[in-house]
Every structure is written in C-alpha cells, then in structure tokens.
Amino acid sequence: MSSAQTVLAIGTQTRVLQSEANQRLALRVAKKAQTYGATVALFSGTYAGLVGGHRVSDDVDFWVPNKHVAAVCEAFPGRILRAHDRTIITVDDQYGKLELMGNMMIHTTDEFGHAAAFPFYMTRQAQRRSRMGAIDGWTMRYADPVDTIMLKAILQRGMEVGKHDIRDIAAIVAATDIDQAYLRTRIRETQSMDRVGVLLEDMGVLRPTCRLELPDFAPGFQGLRESLAG
User: Fold this and answer.
1) Do 26 and 137 touch, CB atoms closer than 8 A?
2) Which residue from 51, 20, 16, 7 is spatially nearest to 176, judged by alpha carbons?
3) C-beta of residue 107 within 8 angstroms of C-beta of residue 116
4) Alpha carbons 99 and 81: distance in angstroms, whole number
5) Theoretical Cys-Cys bridge with 205: which of 147, 199, 200, 222, CB 3.0 to 4.6 Å?
C-alpha cells in the first residue's frame, strides 16, 4: 500500500481510546504548568492517537516554548534532562508517564548515512495557533496538527524501533484540516524541505503551489529586435 493509500485507509479503522492514567496525569500536569505561567501544548504520539483514534500511545508529550522551559523546570524539578539540543522534563506516577519538551534540535540520519539537524522550537506563531479543546475527555491545549506532522515527518521512525511516525501522519491528515500555508512556513523554519517536503509531497499531504503561467513574449521581443536593427 502506498503512502497516499495509507492516508485514505486509516479512517476506516475502529477508534481506540487513550490510557485513563495518562489522561489524569496530563490534566494534572497541564493545570500545574499553567499556575507557573507556562504554556504547554499536547502534541506528538498521544495527540495523533486522540485525533486519529488509531492507536494507544505509551506516554504523553507536551511541547513547551523555549521562554517557558525555566518555569516548567521550576514546576517539576524532579527529573530534568538538560542537553545541548533539548530540555526534557519527565513526570510520571504509578500508572502514567509524561514528558515536557523544549529547546529542541532534532538529529536524524538518512538511509545513506548523512546526518542532519533540524530546529524544532515552539515559535510565537505555533503558540498562537495552539488551541484549547476536548477530545475523549482530554480537555487541554493542543498544538496545531501541522506541528505534530512536522515532528513525525522529520523523525520518520518505523515499527522496527517501535514507532508509528508515518502512520500517525496519515491518521492526523485523515481527521483534520491541514493549513497548507502554515505547513510551508514550518518547513522553511525547520529548513527541512529535502526531508519533510519530499515525504509529505509523496504522501499527498503537501500540495503543489499554484504557478502563474506567463505568456510567451519571445515573438514580440524578436520583432522589437528586428525593428531596432532595421
């Protein structure tokens, strides 16, 4: 089955619900982050699972603007990973697991062994486009669907590593409206046309832009040259 066929077929599957333990943990974390003045938006696997209804995600991922990372670290000081390319704050309890992510630079290696790095920050526009919503009782702020598509299209991980990136993209596309202008903006911001643009065009997610057809001025210019020469 081709990628385009996958997009069409994903909507026919029986809807599955996410973990209630993860739901309770996500609601608690989102509420506490808000009290510290931090914006956090649900994205990645759980977002895809909620929107598409095609699979259960093992954990919950929140996206954090770089300027709010310090506030989130203050709110959840227990398990903080600070690296040169990301900050991850892990919050879990007896039943659920959650990560808050900011300051992200995503590293990839293609099939030919070529390494690349893509900046993946929650920009001001990404913050403005995030929305409060409720899906299956998960009442919280959600990132724009484009941002999870972008994350998954950069990573492109498959079942061989226990991931579902291409399938998640298909599920999101089948269930939501994709803003093509914003998608192109994010591709430019992450400098990922060669990786993300090619994949999403192949899947039929990124639509070709309309090109203005200009008339052929060659005969006119030829006549002008002849008159000047004469």
Assistant:
1) no
2) 51
3) yes
4) 10
5) 200
**What percentage of the chain exceeds 90 in pLDDT?**
80
Which domain, by its residues, includes 212?
A: 3-229
- Residue 130, SS3? coil
Residues 6+ apart with CB under 8 A from 180: 206, 207
pTM, two decimal places: 0.85
Query: Which residue(s) pair with 131 in the sheet?
Result: 142
Mean per-residue pLDDT, 131-136: 96
Q: What residues form DSSP beta bridges with 83?
A: 86
CA distance 172 to 41: 16
Q: How many domains does the chain have?
A: 1
CATH of the domain at 59: 3.30.460.40
What are the backbone dihedrals phi and psi of residue 74, each rounded to the nearest 5 degrees, phi first?
-70, -40
